[in-house]
Specification:
The chain is mainly alpha-helical. It has one helix and no strands. Keywords: Coiled coil, Membrane, Transmembrane, Transmembrane helix.
């Protein structure tokens, strides 16, 4: 094999390697884009879940506070009702 043939073979191999590297780079960029999209979707799901949990917690707190505040009033109403019914 002559020196020219060796250089041609080396250049062919370098071009093939560059082509493969370009393909790998393209694949990596595509994978990174898909990962980025998936992370965005999971972020949206997480924030929606946090929002729903906040609403549920607020509802529970309001219900508990209402029971605490209204139980004496309801007890007094029950006493008044019982008093009027017994007469």
């Amino acid at each position: 094999m002559t020196e020219q043939e060796q250089l041609t073979r080396i250049l062919t191999l370098v071009e093939l390697t560059n082509s493969r590297l370009d393909k790998l780079d393209s694949d990596i960029k595509e994978t990174n884009k898909r990962i980025e999209d998936e992370v965005k979707r999971w972020d949206e799901r997480f924030f929606q879940l946090v929002k729903e949990q906040g609403q549920t917690a607020r509802t529970i707190i309001i219900a508990a506070a209402s029971v605490v505040v209204l139980s004496p009033v309801l007890g007094a109403i029950a006493d008044v009702f019982t008093h009027f019914v017994s007469k």
